[in-house]
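Sequence in, structure out.
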Amino acid sequence: MILEFEGKTPQIHPSAWVAPTAVIIGDVEIGPDSSVFYGAVLRGDVNKIRIGARTNIQDNSVLHVDEDAPCTLGDDVTVGHMALVHGTTVGDGTLVGMKSALLSGSVVGAGALIAAGAVVLEGQEIPDKSLAAGVPAKVRRELSDEQSASFIPHAGRYVELAKRHAGI
């Protein structure tokens, strides 16, 4: 469901795919070859949401904003099932684990891994190529170049999976 809010209508690239049960509201831009799966909600009501190319938002995830904290996801980002991404900036090629929460004003660097169930606190910064886990999330270690690069093909698989769901 694509909904206008206070004069702002979501802008979805023609090559992106949005599941019929996903809800996209207001000031939201979704980049090329990105996908939003079933039950996900992207609510750009009091600020903007920007999603780069080849990024996938998996089932039942929620992206929202604060008046002073937009939500920006780079290219090749994977947001796992049931994750909460709230007023956060996420760098290119990052994997956000299932049921994790990224709170307002947090910044997650490129090529990072946020472990399943982790909670990144308000204003917290996770460096590029870091593994962060726990409640609250703590950086456990730096990822190798090979480990960090492994998330990009995962995002690519979701580009292909979205095409299958779209019947292309």
